[in-house]
Design a protein that fits this description.
single chain; 107 residues; 4-stranded antiparallel β-sheet; 3 helices; 4 strands; 30% helix; globular
Length: 107
């Protein structure tokens, strides 16, 4: 869910309002390592990046995150407990972005 203030700011700053899209990405059953890479579409400005980072950083088990805005590549580091990939996917989609896919962290 996108907060009304974020939508107002995004509209003023030139970002198009985002709406959750239908996700057809195949989700892994679980994350097997302490890091994962998530490909995300719909990121068009620094406000989008801040919104996505804030969203994933609130998920239990996510220790840190880093985003390459130009590439749409989100790298997640997990603590001892790891969230389910479906939880990460739902958070991304509910924030109004499109999940493109999961993979092992490359950096």
């Amino acid at each position: 869910v996108i907060c009304a203030a974020a939508v107002a700011i995004a509209t003023v700053s030139g970002c198009a309002s985002r709406a959750p899209s239908a996700n057809t990405t195949q989700l892994p059953a679980a994350f097997e390592s302490s890091q994962a890479e998530v490909r995300v579409a719909g990121l068009s400005c620094p406000l989008c990046a801040e919104s996505l980072i804030a969203t994933v950083d609130r998920i239990d088990g996510v220790e840190s995150s880093a985003l390459d805005l130009e590439e749409g590549r989100l790298t997640l580091a997990f603590g001892k407990s790891r969230p389910a990939p479906s939880e990460i996917a739902a958070a991304i989609e509910n924030a109004g972005f499109t999940l493109v896919g999961f993979g092992p962290a490359t950096k």
